[in-house]
Amino acid sequence: MSDSSNQIEICFEINGRQVTQTVPVRMHAADFLRHQIGLTGTHLGCEQGICGMCTISVDDRPVKSCLMLAVQLDGAKVRTVESLAPDETELHPLQAAFKRHHALQCGFCTPGFLMLARSFAGRRMNRAEIAEEISGVLCRCTGYEGILRAIEEWLPGTWTDASLSDEAGQ
Amino acid sequence: MTVVHKTVMESGTAIGQALARKEDDRLLRGGGLYVDDACALRQFAMAVARCPFPHARIRHLDVRAAAALPGVVHILTGTEVQCLTNPITVLRPVPGAPMLPYYALAQEYALHEGHAVVSIVAQSRAVAEDAIELLEIDYEPLPHVTDMTRVLDPDAPVLHPQIMTSNLMASKTDYSGNPRAKLAEAALVDYDRFFVNRVAPLSMEPRGVLASWRSGARELDFRSSTQVPHLVRKQLAEALRLDEGAIRVVASDVGGAYGMKLGLFPEELLAAVHAMHLGHPVKWIEDRMEYFRASTHGRESFHDMTIGTDDQGRILAIINEYTNDIGAWNSPFGSSQLSSVTFTGPYHVPDAQVCRHVVLSNKTPIGAYRGYGQPEVNFAREVLLDRVARKLDISPLDIRRRNLLRPEDLPWRTPSGAVYDNGDYLRPLEMLAGATDYEAHFDRPRRPRADGRIVGIGLSSFVERTGYASARFLARRGSHFGAHESVTLRANRSGGIDLYTGVSTCGQGNETAFAQICAAVTGVHYDAIRVHAGDTAQSPLNTGAFASRTLIAAAGALKQAGDAFRDKTLRIAAMVLQISPEDLSIAKGLVHSVREPDRTITLVDVFNRAITGQGIPEGLEPGLETTAHFEPPEASFSFGSAAAVVAVDPETGDFDIERFVFVHDCGVAVNPLLVEGQVRGALVQGLGAALSEELRYDRETGQLINGSMMDYFALTCSDVPKIELMHTEIPSDVTTFGVRGVGEVGTIPPAAAVANALCDALRDYGVAFSALPLTPETVWRALQNVRNKGETP
């Protein structure tokens, strides 16, 4: 079977814009976002749902996009790491916290951690709970400490009503 | 604490400042440029068919059905590869070993599961993978050997019978003094065999390549995930029979490497051969199943360690005979040699001997991996030293106190000829003893707590060889690279510096550290320095990012190039301002008079004058660009001690590491943020290898049992114990700015610290550990062993 033999048209929202695209039925969502939409910030580390670097937000829930087919994105609201920063000069507060705490080295896993952690906004979690929740993404460089510190620092800022609605609106 | 260089120059930075990284913004935004993020027009995708057996003869190979699949454009087999390429060359040969002709595809015989047999290029990766299913390959499975203790048995199959008569690649002995005689005098001699597990370096970005051939120009553009672009270029030229000038290697962002991405891999060469044949760009991105079977693994070895002491626990001699199992081939970086360099560790042992054997087996090749021989031998020596202490009724702390090299013993030459530079090895140990309240801890009886667990504490002292001791040293060992680093600094019209380095960006923060040193030396602001890394077409020839050596060598190059850059800048400014260069300084984008700060000229003006050659002193060459190559005169050694506190359940063997304390000296820290990141990251890799990581081969089938992310247990965030770090900062007297390397040290002490802590907790049971990883099952089995002998308390 070749790639072109079986395709379906899907319509979905990606980082705030509506897109209609034809996708091969056997292509997974991460490959689709990277190679057809051109959003290469979402990375692939295992394609079996373990390493977590392909984590994206689908209808405001974190999802490992290698375990999802592109056709499943039909009708969904999708966000990737490229949607976080407001512009080219400023970082999202979570990204800024990652930078302050040296929460990244090679940076390959970073989009996965950011997209997962972003979904914690508004939740009250202690260090152990954060550690448990981010164990769905692997990092081989940092030893995780910087990532934990960054999320711990950023999270309380999401507890106010204003920042909650801001987060939800992003 | 001594700080030697206070080069605060209003340049936005100084050496020693914890600046946020230059690399971060793009990586945080998903704007990194890893290999698979680049694409070329009309690119094709490559996939590789791999042997499922550990050892097989390829009796028959029929590619016709695969070639007929729509979308398939090119297929290579071993026969074509032998015509079109030379075997992949070795960068760091195993001294004394025969050359094994390592072709990119198997030649009649496949020697490990995952050995590449056919490569297929198609319109997409999916089509190429479909085509693999259509290959007809008739394998004749042959007897195999995967157990490293059996590879030299008389009935073991010889992997390379045309070249070798056994699976022994090479042996090498180093010694000093008369260790055998000293052992005969010793009050106590202890011995054991220690097994070190085979692990995966596990970069999160797998290997990958995008090869483009411009046939009109006969030029190869080669985008690769590598630590060593210039060395890959050399190997490509040799394998493809091209002039180096025809090849450009680019490594933009590299998603982790840890020693594994050192040198040319077979699949990368195949992509280039396909691209040259097709005139189309060819991309190959490794999937994780391939990664586990066909990249390179790390570590696997066993160490026969003997320590002899007097009745006070003073070490009289160490003899270490060890075997490195390097799998089926000598990978570009050969076998780890650092076990031989650091086997005596931080101790005063004039009489010592080490013997290394390098052997082959039907497994994936072993390559360099962070620490590269040092964690292995540290585990054996430190665990055995604790046993000696226990037998002599000396505390593990005291036996280390008695044996550590003193500042006045340094520099110290080890049996292998390596020279430890200056340091104070006792201080980190004493800090560790204080921070853990070791003595009180150790003296407590080992009774279960309320939760049923028994607490124990274990120590592990270490040195880390960082950098290389000169090109002469490397030449004696046949290495095809130097010990230097190089940089080019080029002024641009915006008043900034373009900094070019062949060191690719693999996560260590080299862009940051290089810019930081450049700013401190030149006075040009940190933000005005842009680092262009990892492109052989731009950067001066260099060595690469490995062996904890980058900054040791690059600091010297940056100092020299920076000084020359600053001198010329000041000469031009001096002419314009009519002030002597000695009375000028550079800060905030200006050259200004030191005495009259209002008399200034902008760097934009100075650099434009230099670039155009208009308005510069008579006789001064136009342009403002400096290049420097620097080779450190010696390697530098980091040192320190670590402790683990564990709580173990003597019924189940389950245990937790409740504290892990690490005290370490890496000389002057250029950026403490980066140092902490390197140390923590390496510690967690070291803990992973100690606690849960192990690539296991089925003895019967010779196949890798757990070659997937799902079955290979790298530590997740919730697995990592609390880690406390402390530093001493004794500037190295053999490096620029007094830096020591820091990239690998964290991998060295964890295994021994944890093993020693477990033994300490269970000392009333008398258990011993000689193999990694240390799992609850290992502990439970050790306890069962003792119980079965009826020796439980």
> What's the count of strands of chain B?
28
Largest sheet of chain B: 7 strands, mixed
Q: Give the percentage of residues in beta strands of chain A.
A: 15-25%
CATH superfamily of the largest domain in chain A: Beta-grasp domain
- Could you name the CATH class of the largest domain in chain B? Alpha Beta
Number of domains of chain A: 2
Question: What is the subunit arrangement here?
Answer: heterodimer
**C-alpha termini separation of chain A:** 40 Å
Q: What is the CATH topology assignment of the largest domain in chain B?
A: Aldehyde Oxidoreductase, domain 4
Largest sheet of chain A: 5 strands, mixed
What is the succession of H and E elements of chain A? EEHEEEHHHHH
Strand order of the largest sheet of chain A: 2-1-5-3-4
Radius of gyration of chain A: 16 Å
Shape of chain B: globular
* CATH T-level topology of the largest domain in chain A: Ubiquitin-like (UB roll)
Coarse morphology of chain A: globular
Secondary structure layout plus pairing:
The complex is a heterodimer of chains A (170) and B (793).
Chain A: E1 7-14, E2 17-24, H1 29-37, E3 55-58, E4 61-64, E5 77-79, H2 93-100, H3 110-118, H4 127-133, H5 145-154, H6 161-169
Parallel strand pairs in A: 1-5
Antiparallel strand pairs in A: 1-2, 3-4, 3-5
Chain B: H1 24-28, E1 44-50, E2 56-62, H2 64-68, E3 72-77, H3 78-84, E4 109-110, E5 116-122, H4 125-133, E6 136-141, E7 168-176, H5 179-185, E8 188-196, E9 208-214, E10 219-224, H6 229-240, E11 247-250, H7 266-278, E12 282-285, H8 288-294, E13 301-309, E14 315-325, H9 338-342, E15 352-359, H10 374-392, H11 396-403, E16 412-413, E17 419-420, H12 426-436, H13 438-443, E18 454-466, H14 470-476, E19 485-491, E20 497-501, H15 510-522, E21 529-533, H16 550-577, E22 584-587, E23 590-593, E24 600-602, H17 603-612, E25 625-630, E26 636-648, E27 655-665, H18 672-691, E28 723-728, H19 750-761, H20 776-788
Helix pairs in contact in B: 10-19, 15-16, 18-19
Organism (chain A): Acetobacter conturbans
Domain 2Fe-2S ferredoxin-type (chain A): 8-84
Pfam families (chain A): Fer2 (PF00111), Fer2_2 (PF01799)
